[in-house]
Amino acid sequence: MSSFDTTSTGSIATVSPSARRSSAWHARAQEGGNVLEIDDLHITATASGADVISDVELDLKPSEILALVGESGSGKTTVGLAVLGHFRTGLTHACGTVWLYPSDADEPAEMTALPDATLRQLRGARVSYIPQDPALSLNPGMRVGEQISEVLDIHGFGSSAEERAERVRSVLREVGLPDDEAYQRRWPHQLSGGQQQRIGIAMAFAMYPDVLVLDEPTTGLDVATQAQVLDTIREMTVRNKVAGLYITHDLAVVAEIADRIAVMLRGRIVEQGGCADVLERPQHDYTKTLLAAVPDLAGRNRIGDFERADVPADEKAAAEARATAAEENRKTHLLTTDATHASPAAEAATASGPETGTSGTAGPETGTASPETGTSGTGGATAASEVSERQPTAPATDAVLQVRGLGLSYGPKTILESIDLDLRAGECTLLLGESGSGKTTLARSIAGLNDGYTGDVIYRGETIARSTRQRSIGQRTDIQYIFQSPFSSLNPRRTIGESLAVPLEMAGGLSAAQRREQVKDALDAVRLGRQFHDRRPGDLSGGERQRAAIARALVNMPSVLICDEITSALDVSVQASIISLLRTLQDERGLAMLFVTHNIALARHIASRVAVLNAGRIVDDGPVDAVLENPQHTYTQELLANVPSL
Amino acid sequence: MIARLILQRLAISIVILFAVSLIIFFATVLLPGDPARAILGQQATPERIAAINEQMNLNEPPLTRYFLWLGGLFVGDLGTSVATGQPVSQLLSDRVGSSVVLMVAAALISVPAGVILGIVSALRRGKAVDNTVTGLSLVLAALPEFVVGIALVAFFSTTVFTILPAVTMRPPGTQVWDFPSQLILPIAVLVLVVTPYIARMMRATMLEVLDSGYVEMARLKGVPERRVIFRHALPHAIGPVAQVIAIQLAWMAGGVVVVEFLFRFPGLGQALIDAVDYRDVQVVQAVTMIVALIYVIVNLLADIVGILTNPKLRTGGDA
Amino acid sequence: MTTTPPPHTGAADRDSSVVEQRADLDPATTASAAAPSLATKDAHTGQRNTVLTRFWAQKQAKVGVIITAAVVLLAFLGPLFVPWATGYTTTEFVARPFQPDGIAGSDNLGRDVFTRFIGGGLTLLLYALLATLIGLILGVLFGMTAAYTGGWLDSLIMRSNDVLLAIPQLVFALLAITVLGPQGWVLVTVIGITHAPRIARVARSATLGVINEDYIRAAEMYAMPRLRLLTREIMPNITGPMAVEAGLRLTYSIGAIASLSFLGLGMQPPTADWGLMINENRIALSIQPWGVLLPVAAIALLTIGTNLIADSIARASATSNVGEQ
């Protein structure tokens, strides 16, 4: 897996530029102490004076990787940058200390109180940073070799330009990149995402730092590249005795790479301990929720169920009845009102705990105390540990929607090629593909948002027009598509109610009052609550927005639902609740669903079938178990081998 | 790759100039009104109208006249001024130089001044220097040229001081640059009008670049601040700002008309105003065409700067 | 793509707020600098944080509104006080030229300067407003159409824009005046038309920023009629940059029309008009400064005021999308 040139380096003592035998670092390292100590760190927002980071205490030993885990907005990047003595605009260091024990000085340095000049000497040399998005943090106007050698020049590595040039070559080899002159003369835009990230890693390691801050360095990389980059990082930290602070939201990655874990919630560290301890015996409730929300390939960890309350038996029965009713009456518009009114229990559940205001970034969504109606038919099986086998409520033989020989190319570039896909009622198909595989293009072609394809999309035995505008009203309302980003899919200037009424207006046949009622019912169905009708997207959290977007897709009672990466912009706990909601809705309404994602670990949590898309072709297609346990194509095999897991 | 892009831009520029010539010609020809009668006014007799029509090819169909006119442009024949009876090229030849002196001098001052003020302002964001520069440039950017001009004249030539000439005198046989003191106020007006825009755009572009991930990364690498600015930030601001500078310099070609009128400066702008007064269509056409040519050339240069400072364009998208 | 290169990308001409607008379209660039979790919380604290409140929160906005209002009031109400408050009409000869009679003396022909001053702003203001309106309507129409339809129509509209932009506004106006004469409708129309390509550029780029949002795709998906899509989904989301544009163009309209009058090619004698007054009285700047300084001050205050307002709108609407991100 790893592509190192292991002959290029020896131990730190022989290659380190400082080659000192005594320093603050050496003293610390010898007695087994910490080389980085963060104590009582407080960072406030300059404008309001409110704490963004409170009471953070962390320490790091050489060769150790500490994972700093938290969801978006938890302040983990802010802490990471504080290690380098950097505070972004709008943030002020209030109090607390960050002590660094550098290997080139006898005295430790307090990073938050250093004069700029001293700080610059340490940054990039003794403590370095690997940023999240290499595409944004590599200078597009500088050749990659120069960006690495710049670090060495500034910090005066070695004694000659020759020595520095040699170091550039050796560090490039260490991160598994070519070291020749031609490669060094490339511009960032000429490299792939994985290669760009390796340049970032090379820059960070060039000076043999003592402490490394890694800010989600594998986000945005595909699984195979992520595995390679993680290996590179792991190897280099151990070999160079670097202490690593690994910032991430991905607990599965943490399990692969970290020695210890610190969990952050709203600017505080709520739990800290050894990797195995925290992952296996979490103490804090938030850690437990977070862990329960992580989808795993085996499907043992039924995400979305963690918040499940005790469900009264009669509520289950009501939901079951509703599901049946839904199946029977699906094509009539009257149904919505019928179905919802027939289940007061569901309304009660919504009223008891809708998602509250700001919860989106702060923690798990508390509002989804919904009955797990998804497995209502096989209630006993849910309790069993093996839940991976999901039974469709209505095992249909005929496909509601068929894709036959679909292809698409832009000029000479082929995006999709002879795609065949069947969607059946009550069945969810997971369409797996990495970035660039063409999965969104395929999903949009089916939804009628791309009309440039060849081949056929057949709905209920009838080939339908390529563009939604040419499709019949019935076809348009029956096939619904949900967009990836809830931050983009709702018009910020219009209320949720206005946005959700659009499908009904365009389908026609309802009065304004009827539309309003139906929209409110849909808001109930996605467990948002009717009070969201008059709010604007700006007032909603990401999870709430995505629920509203789902409600828009459901308002017309569709039979086919296409979900395009709808959880990828959301935090893991929000993802879990959305997945849970989708499961419920799908089973209630017997939807034929296509769940498009890059995350294969979700397969057993939502889908009964998996189709794997690679470079525009479907390379594996079958029931979940068959594909996951016995993948046919080498691409799927590799993918499964590289998926990190808890 | 670069050569191809530049050639492409060059071709576009030529097409634009061609389209401009169409607009200028047909706007002045096809609109209502009898040019000969307009020129002659009260003295219009049928014979004189016929003579003028003959002299200006007015009897030919418009398309033929257009090509005659366009062909003339290529060989420097800009037609004959109906007001003075002189060839237009002769009328304008010594005025072009005067205007160009004015504009080049203004550009040489305002471009570096605007760029430096913009950078300083961006680097001192929110500080007193920045607030002063932003505030002043906002006020100056609002003012029409003649307001700035009158204010300067009032201050330096009449009511407060009388140290600088308010009008330009040019005895026959001399050039405008023989009297440097007469150039100060006209140039100052152009500089005061153009600099604020460049400074504002430079500041805004620079702020955007300073907020970028790669500038933050450079700082986290320990790059000294001076190098952060000159090596990491500034090169990315040059392309966009070059565009704005080009547009400002082209704008100056319009502003120079007002400034020349105000100071009675014997340049193209003054000639244009006189020509509009006398409805001297040939001169108006010629001056407009010259101004458009300046605009297109300046823009072409800015495009080339943009191409040269963008490694993506320079190397193409592939590896 | 390679066949339709954007020759003069992004930057609009004479457009001081280009970047604020660009930030408006791309919230990610500005949001990255903002403290995490601050912006999104405003909505929940009860106090509404709208473009309007952010606009009013700025000192320069208040200054801009006050001085603009003062000059506009003077221009609109001034003519009502003529002649009963000042005693003279704007064209009446009351004294010998350049006499210090009355409040501000007499002008080059012996008319009362103060009377002409309070009576001379209305036409300028009305013409400028009309010209701006014409420019906005044409510009928004063409800009939105270009962005929304794309393809050859987009190329055609934008290339035509480039051609029109090659002739400076003032020179274009002079060309029109040469042919059609210095009449009011000519001034208004030609200034409006020459604004249009500049506004169209901004409208197009604002629309492009919106059009790639998924809510537009969603509207397409539900087969919303195109006209309704433009007016209900797109238009409300480009009001910010368009309001800025309106303010800027008003500033430049005032400047352009006043400049033409100053050149003697706009409003014609004996009309009382600020630009024309400056032209008529500037020879006597040293002996009778009021005839020049009053109208110069009024025009300066007016353009500064409208520009301050435009800039404040730009600042207010640039931060708005950060909160929505």
Automatic annotation (TrEMBL), chain A:
Compositional bias segments (type: Low complexity): 16-26, 339-386
GO MF annotation: an example: ATP binding
Keyword Cell inner membrane attributed: no
Gene3D superfamilies: P-loop containing nucleotide triphosphate hydrolases (3.40.50.300)
Protein name, as recorded: ABC transporter ATP-binding protein
Biased composition (Basic and acidic residues): 311-331
The ABC transporter domain, residue ranges: 36-291, 401-640
Family indicated by similarity: Belongs to the ABC transporter superfamily.
Entry keyword set: ATP-binding, Nucleotide-binding, Transport
Stored InterPro entries: AAA+_ATPase, ABC_transp_ATP-bind, ABC_transporter-like_ATP-bd, ABC_transporter-like_CS, Oligopep_ABC_C, P-loop_NTPase
Biased composition, class Polar residues, residue ranges: 1-15
UniProt key word Nucleotide-binding: yes
From TrEMBL, chain C:
Protein name: ABC transporter permease
Entry membrane topology: Multi-pass membrane protein
Protein family per UniProt: Belongs to the binding-protein-dependent transport system permease family.
PROSITE patterns associated with the record: ABC_TM1
UniProt xrefs under Pfam families: BPD_transp_1 (PF00528)
UniProt keyword annotations, A-Z: Cell membrane, Membrane, Transmembrane, Transmembrane helix, Transport
InterPro entries for the chain: BP-dependent_transpt_permease (IPR050366), MetI-like (IPR000515), MetI-like_sf (IPR035906)
Biased amino acid composition, Basic and acidic residues: 11-25
Signal peptide positions on this chain: none
Biased composition (Low complexity): 26-39
Compartments where found: Cell membrane
SUPFAM superfamilies assigned to the protein according to its UniProt record, in alphabetical order: MetI-like
First-listed, main subcellular location of the protein, grouped into a coarse class: membrane
Record's keyword annotation contains Membrane: yes
Transmembrane segments: 63-82, 124-150, 170-194, 250-267, 287-310
Domain ABC transmembrane type-1: 121-314
Region annotation Disordered: where it falls in the sequence: 1-42
